[in-house]
Fold these 2 entries.
Entry 1:
Amino acid sequence: MIMENRPELSPSEIAQLTRRDFLATSTTGLGTLAFASMLEQNGLLAADAQRSDPLVPRPPHFAAKAKNCILIYFEGAPSHIDLFDPKPKLNELNGQKLPDSMLEKVRFAFIKKEGVRLMGSPRKFQKHGQCGMELSDLLPHLGSVADDLCLIRSMHTDQFNHHPGQLMMNCGVPLFGRPTMGSWLNYALGSESKNLPGYVVLTAGRGSSAGASAWTSGFLPSNYAGVLFRNQGDPVLNLGNPAGITPAMQHLGIDAIGDLNRLRHQYVADPEIAARIGAYELAGRMQTAAPELMDLSKESQATLDAYGLNRKEPNLKAERGGGAGQYRNFARSCLHARRMVERGVRFVTVLHASWDHHSNLNNELTYNTGMADQPIAALIKDLKQRGLLDSTLVVWASEFGRTPLGENRGGSTNVTGRDHHPFAFSMWMAGGGVKGGQVYGATDEIGWNITKDPVHVNDLHATILHQFGLNHEKLTYRFQGRDFRLTDVAGKVIPKLIA
Amino acid sequence: MNQPLTFTLAAAGLLLALPARAAVDFARDIQPIFAKHCYSCHGPEKQKSGLRLDIKAAAFAGGDAGKSIVLGKSAESRLVKFVSGADKENVMPPKGERLGATQVALIKEWIDAGAVWPDSASASGATKSAHWSFQPIQRPIVPQIKNSKATVRNPIDAFVLARLEKEKLAHAPEGDRYTLIRRLSLDLTGLPPRPEEVAEFVNDSRADAYERLADRLLASPHFGERWGRHWLDIARYADSDGYEKDRTRPFAFIYRDWVINAINRDLPFDQFSIEQLAGDLLPDATHEQRIATGLHRQTLTNTEGGVDQEEFRCKATVDRVNTTATAWLGLTMGCTECHSHKYDPLTQREYYQFFAFFNNASEKNLPSPQAAESASYNKLKGAWEAEQSKLKSAFDGYVKNELPRKQAEWEKQAQPSARWTVLEPKKAAASNGAELKTQSDKSILVGGPNPATATYTIEATTDLKTITGFRLETLVGDSTNKNVGRTKNGNFVLSEFSVKIAGADGERTVALRDAVADFHQERSGKGYPAAAAIDGDLKTGWAVIPQTNRAHTIIFHIREPLTLSAGERLTITIDQQHGTEHTLAHFRIAATSEAGPLRPDTIPALIAEVLRTPTAQRKPEQTQTLVKYFRESGDTDAAKLQTQLDEHAKKQPKPPETFAATISEEPKARETRIHIRGNFLTKGDTAQPGTPAVLHPFKPRNARADRLDLARWLFEPANPLTARVAVNHVWKTLFGRGLVLTVDDFGMRGEKPSHAELLDWLASTFAAPADALAKMPGAQPNLGWSRKALIKLIVTSATYRQESRAHPELAQRDPNNVLLARQNRLRLEAEAVRDSYLTASGLLNPAIGGPSIRPALPADIAALGYANSVKWTESAGNEKYRRGLYIFFQRTVPYPMLMTFDSPDSNALCARRERSNTPLQALTLLNDSSFFECAQTLGKIAHTENSGTLEEKLKRIFQRCLARSPMPSELARLKQLYAAQLQLAQANPEAAAKICGTDKKDQPGLAEQATLIALSRVLLNLDEFITRE
């Protein structure tokens, strides 16, 4: 997409020229009559295009509070007891056994029940904001926006392996072939963006368990699938022209494709052609809009610093984090997310893997939160300052939490991590009409079970849809004889989460 | 919680009053209660929770949760618990009038008395449903068409036209020959026709030119690729496991090859199906028939750490059930995994009866070397064996001719070392569960659980009066105990070795010094030397990698020679605290009185004993032992020859590891139990293999029904579903829309057929056996489940041959073209899009079958796989120009182009692909390097073919892409484009050179070539190019 330094006509000039020539020429055997009818056809085309555009904006079921969503998804399961849910009693009980009655019916991924011991957390928790929300010392920046956070300490899920758990959190059921939340929202509401996809995925860090199933449209048409934006090369796969094809040539080409498709439409009257013409035009616009979106040169130095684009990465032994450059990549993803929301992208997923800290938890978690804390807080402040936070729901999520027990995989006595824990974990939301500055739900003294206000994944989804003006029981898609929902057969909106 | 008690008292009181009455009579006392309170939910219309109370057998079988009526035991009967209100969670009936205490008491009495239910009191019998798809397939009479001008090429047209006539509509005209050959080529082979094929067909004036074309395409080996791919959608075929680890399945293609071949040889659909579902159970099953069962090995495999394997075995089994039910029966049986079907007459119990067929499947990998692999293996093996016998004879010659002399020399100077006395173990104990057993040779063998760490404590006595040192031998034994240590790699770490002496005077610790071992493990840093076993530090120790498969010796000197008093016992402690099972497997402890320094004896005790014995007095077996020892350990030349033999043995070529993933039957039947609410841990009633009651009867061959019975049941003439579902799949593929729109749902929630009689006519024509067909009036030739014959029948109909243009009036009346007053325009599937590009540009490598290929993929896309585990190495040479169906399908990182064009994700059956229309598709076709390469190739061909005017050149490219000539308006637009592009290319020679893929920008004609490439790119991006018209 780099304009070559050549004295040539601008794309629009070329397009104008050729089009005018084309329309005016009658010596080439093409009568003006054909064009007249072709122009007439344009009205028909527009109607066809409108009818067949699956992303045309649609109204919600009732007045919405949120218009856009930024889902920050940490694959691997961050430890709730080291980040969000302080457990002084757990520290007291460090090294002690759990009563057999608690272990009896539990299945673990790796823990051997024999000899397993509770593991306290070395983290210090502090109160933040007017609300006095307690957060780990690993999250100082998030603390500065505590009054905007709606922290849920009572999440629970049905799955304790990563990929099924991630499907559950993204699709509402631990099964393949179902659409993700972003697909559901685009299917329900269409896209406000004329130049960009309605559902964008940004990744930082190493590959994730769920792979492409974290942004699939499942049984919904692929128009609703997440579009992966890349960290290297073209921001979208195949966005750049092949070598040598200049923007002017590209413009000429797309124009000719459009005209020839119009001629065909005139002959076969298939609305799909109108949609195809529209798709090519949007593709052409994306070629300009996406690089513009990804270009941060117009952002102020203050903004770049606030997001921490140029921070130094700590020298920690943290092999899971994803290697050099992750701090910058993640900060950029957060900033890009804001820019996308500004441009009407309905749903942005910021993915980072991996938080699966079976061992070396202290170093790994310090490394990862060091990466995540500042940019996320900056994103919330930035959205707020621009007046976008009210209509943008920011969500921190993962598939489950981690055990208060130390992990003794293989009977090892060298315990430095925690195993998977689906019975209770923490997450938060901000903006989008949720009630900030509150902690919802609670767990027992060691963070094992929920003691107050449990929130199932389906409840979370029901509540999120509600913020978008959607009744989760009415947002359905008929597939194989059944009306499917994001919330499957369960889920209830939790009013206390809502402002 | 008080309520049940109160209730019981009340009931008891009532019961007291009952004896005066006659015994409970089902028809008089019970059935009316059921009819009034229960039938509306548990009767002929609905069977909520799978329970039905109007039929004796069904009522006694119970519902999803298990038995409702336990004969003779009212207290255990759910029915009583629920209607009495004893179970607050489940009060029946949930709405409407509840049962009175008298009625409850009657039911209890009836059950306690054995629940007598006379057969005469049963309702109608089997479950009947009025739903259309469960009715037997009727052979409809082919209708007469009034319009004499209408073309009726075969009965399909009569059915379609009859319907159109009702609506006062007619067929559209037949498509022109250009359209027809392109349509037929794409539909039957997935490839567009080449210009010469188009010319031949267009100029073929024979009356049956079209039929000949159809025959040619049906006979093409590419037919199997095209229709095989349709089947692979249903089979959820992929080249990797799925889930987080998503490991590759390098031999998955063997099943794909089977599908392609089976379709090419037109294996009849019944046989095609039976072999895939139960090929392993067929009498004298062939290797190929076993490969066919690979269908149900396409299920996902989760090797993520810490998964419960049984959970995912159940998930795979569930997938097999759901796939089978949807693929052949068009039923959404998956809905009944957790509860009875909400709409269709299918219960959860029936689900697990179906599940039972597949629950007994075991996954078996069958060695399946491909022909070329076997040939190259045999060649390598021959060469290896020749070398082997050469080395062997050299070795044997040496042993025979040289070794005896050398042994005699060696014996003269061999010095047996100190005499060791093996200690007499009296007690041997281990911590953390390991079990120590003293052997007859006084060694101690370790068994039982394999803990991470362990301490062995041995109490022993000895006849020695003084002791100067101890020896620990770590031993290897037979095949069960090949290594000295118990960890996976055979190692151990001896953290500390210590000795105490206990006697009448109390206990004293023996001070050890100078540990020496015959071998120790080297490692950067300190390693694992012998001295570490007596350094008082539990974190260090003695270990022996890589020599874990041979015996070793460690010697401990004693500071002051030790004098033992009578009755004193030695307690030896062997501490092994390294963790991860680094513990000894077999050992023996000895002591000596001889003066030091002691050496770790490299000559084993047994050999030392022989050497001490004068030659003449040795027993024959002693002599043999010595010869063997000298050959193996004493003589360097023999050892060298032996090493050569050993090294060569390692090079023995491995037989090809290619295996076919197949299904076979577990020899011991697994018990199937209902999974309550679909949870595999919550087991309900047992379920025997069986089929849904709403369908035709199931007659297994033996008492225990198996998959073969099920597969054959699917193809019984009485089955109302399989043939309808199968012809509908084919119809959908050829018209873009099934006669039943919901190809995967023939149940109540599915769409009704648009042409019910046509569907049945096709189904009965496709399926009926020869004798039944022959009796039918106006019978068609028997298709005998021939896929090719069915396809030929459809594609030769006038209905199929119509043009696909829509007319405004028609578009208003029938926007979805349900009535078939024209053909449909269909965007090509992902693979056909790719194949069309490769064909038009001439790049296509048409090879059929074999391993999957990997076209270019940006590295960051491959890196999206879990922990960068996906390795994507671009295929070499023209392999990357193979057809789309051969692209390696990595489930977590599917090839982007395929997904962009709606390929299924292969995680579950896909009976109907979406045909979306997105900007990403536009970007892919415009800019993807593979597709641009096609444009480059096509443009270069046009440029090189020097003959002709520009117009002729443009026409030729156009024909190559679209199989027709351009209309004047199109040609005019192309000329315009050519002129404008040429202008840009001439103004920018560097860009022109890049477009042509060269860095020599001064070549003549580069601008023209670049322009033809740009033009080709436009043609390859037209809607028409990726559409079958």
Entry 2:
Amino acid sequence: MIQTSPAPEAVGLTRDEYEELTRRLGREPAALELRLFGVMWSEHCGYKHSRLTLRSLPAEGSRLLQGPGENAGVLDIGGGWAVAFKMESHNHPSAVDPYNGAATGVGGIIRDVLSMGARPIALLDSLRFGPLQDAAARRIATGVVAGIAGYGNCVGVPTVGGELVVDPRYAGNPLVNVACLGLLRADAVARAKASGEGNVVLYAGARTGRDGIGGAAFASAELDERSEHADRSAVQIGDPFTGKLLIEATLQALAAGGVVAIQDMGAGGLTCAASEMAARGGVGMRLDLDAIPLRESAMRAEEILLSESQERMLLVVRPEAAPRIAAIFHRWGLAAAAVGRVTSEQTLRVHRGGEEIAALPPYALADAPAYRPAAEEPAELRARWSVALPAPPAGDLSGILLRLLASPDIASKRAVFRQYDHSVQVRTVIGPGAGDAAVLRIPEAAPRGVALAIAGSGRVCALDPYRGARLAVAECTAALACAGAEPVGVTDCLNFGSPERPEIFWTFRRAVAGLADACRALRIPVVAGNVSFYNESPSGPIPPTPVVAMVGLIEDIGRTCGIAVRRAGEVVFLIEGAPPGLEGSAYLHVLHAAAAGRPADVDLPVHARVTAFVRTAVADGLLSSVHDCADGGVAVALAESALAGECGLDATLPGAGRRDAVLFGEGPSRFILTAPEDSAVRLAALAAAHGVRLAAVGRTGGSQVRLRVMERGEGAAGDGDVEPAPAHWDVDLSLEELAGAYNALSEVFA
Amino acid sequence: MRFGVVVFPGSNCDRDCVHVLRGVLGRDVDELWSGDPSVAGADALILPGGFAYGDYLRAGAVAATAPIMAAVREFAGAGGPVLGICNGFQVLLEAGLLPGAMLRNRSLQFRCQPVHLRVESMRTPFTAGLRPGQVLRMPVAHGEGKYYAPEDLAARLEARDQIVFRYCDASGRPADDANPNGSLRHIAGVCNAAGNVVGLMPHPERASEAILGSTDGRLLFESVIAVLAARRRAERVPV
Amino acid sequence: MTTVRIVITLKPGILDAAGQAVRQGLTSLGYRDVGDVRVGRYLEIAVPQDVPPEQIEAMCERFLANPLIEEWRVGDAP
């Protein structure tokens, strides 16, 4: 059958891209080859618009064993052990099929970490949806949560933390970003760099079907040729049981010796894995499609090559080891077959039925053209900075606190995370809801532990993408400090609208610059990451939403700390490394549906000092609880700590100016701590040594949360005795009332 | 004294059980692959949690047909101690080694949360070392934990001291809001008529070390160790 | 070979929580006249033409269904 080549546009390529690929080939591509380029050079696989900008991210550090360029980053944690870390997005599939989109997102990131030879030990998710009163948004939200639970629980990897944000600008464009941490021996890092002429290319895992065919790269102009394949599906379906078998089989196979390289088959399927592995190694491959284990009959060559069937790995194995390795996969009930050989010529050759049907240089496929898109500051950006803040409310600050606690971004996510198994693998020391960061023990490298944090800031980034990205990094380091952890590595998901719009690309560049500057200043390498462009719907693009996930090292797992007030009669302390502000705050968003004002930039040297103090205080065992002040400011943080510990507290907050700003204003480098009376002296000394101002602001006890803003002329904060003046509290709420508001999401996710 | 932890394709909590038995309690443990027909000289068997065979068809249904189950049946028939945890409990139910059946949680959702259990029966090897009415705290993590038995069977189980654990509040009172899945009569665990086979939905292996929040789960393992040690002393076998 | 169709549902008397949830969903969508909903499992099994019905019954009883909580009905594919 003669295949006429489709027009480049039909496979998603521009005229210029077509010229470039013919130049690289030295000839016109065959129809099949053109289709392979269409997928490999899609934005999703090729990172055309982002690659050059991403080069500015720092990727150095003494613990870095593997930076960007492999399937996940790897960091040494000491004791002979290392962690693999990566985050991926699965936004568009989750809009189409929330359950399977989210489930396959979990499956995919697990396999990326597995490709480094690591056992996946934890998951984090960052989710963004439209307002949950809307039935469509609620359907997406509950479907996504169910999908993450359905896959993660069955595959046996605990979901230990995450964030959930609601904003009208994500309606129709949900964001589902999932991060995975894996554990491996530092001397056993696996890589995806093919080498060794004559080595066997081994396929392992589930059989190949038509999952994912009909995705972005295929345009509707191809209807004639495709119409006979009625069973094509655009959404991949994952099977977590097979995913679990794949984890065990792969780890056993890697331990058996003889595996030279390994990569999972994700986006772009077999073609992507083969071409990337070959390109990295500067070698070629010969693939025989007749040997590929198939699930469907009558599959066309391009379907086999581009299928995104889940739970599949591609390995390069020494010939004498290949039968033994295949047998390991078979024992676990998985398909495994030799499907090709590594060659020394730099060509990927594909054969079927004894015929060569494609011959392409691996680098040509794997190395899509990189662009320098136009960037232009959005016209209305600065205008939003100077919007006047609404007048302070007349009274009822208690009512405002309740409204903030009930708002979806702040409200308890218990109804979500109780659907996730967060304690399988018996590592979870601090799980969801109990701390700003998740804390896992690593008995293999005892007494060490790791902490995980995740933060994004679409609301703030819409106002200032540079500062917003820096604030996300700062929030992660703050969370890790609360766990007593030193940051060691970052992974990111950069979620944006179309990069072909100069205003959007400008926000992308600024966000990456903010991420890069903050990580460089704090000396934390960005070990791996992901870009998701084209998050747009008829109502417009999403706000610029860089999401940051960070892993930190705890030297002694016995010294960590959560957010819950532990007992009555202890002192409440406040650290204000930056003054509170209402610009871009949850307060404005919830009460006034406004996103306005220019958020303050994080002062990184100050932030570093403050987080170092918090981390040391935790490591020295001085604290009963610690909580960073994020959305909703000090008042929300105090309420959350009280609720978590089922213990009330009184606090008098220092600050001049608007009461609502003091209570609910936001800013980086701000923490509330509780500690026994007899730690106070040591804490004060430690704070002084770090150049940090620590204010004793109240006491724990009772069953109310009572807060007031200090009047002018009152004693300075830090007075040993902060007995409140009788009569008026600005906020006076029972734990019951607070809990009632805080549980606002329990109905939505029931 | 050797423990055997059965590993099915899809078991997740086998490594956790091995960690507690070997790492925390210092016991000899063998991982028993479900495709093998033997339990290899184990003195006690643990069927761990997870999603054996993906829980396809019904939770535990396919696993109950695995080759090792004949040996498990024989071991149980001879009075050997068998503990089924979560998915393991489901396998024992499907295999007919325990009475009753499991349904989806009342909430129709997976639930991972701490629960309190009240010890109802001390006549099993896993509860012989506990006190009547003792309240234990440990996590549950399951989507199909709603234990069910028809009325006449349920009444018989009560009468014959086959209810081993019940969900309760912190003070030991069984209550609806203390029951994470809606199980009949707040049942969290049962035993067979002879009392040597026990199944429970909560995870004692996740509550065996203080750093993880509770050590109450360890009591079940320590109990069977003590029972086995006493038997071996009686038989003059080295403990 | 012929295809046997088997439908497995919870026994009456056992709370069908999934069925209730589905009914609630239909009602919220405006289908208020909907009565009881039961949710079950549907299997298609390819077997040789001459397989006796007793064998299918045995398969159901031993494995495909849990007789304590489920009932089943067997039919041929059209």
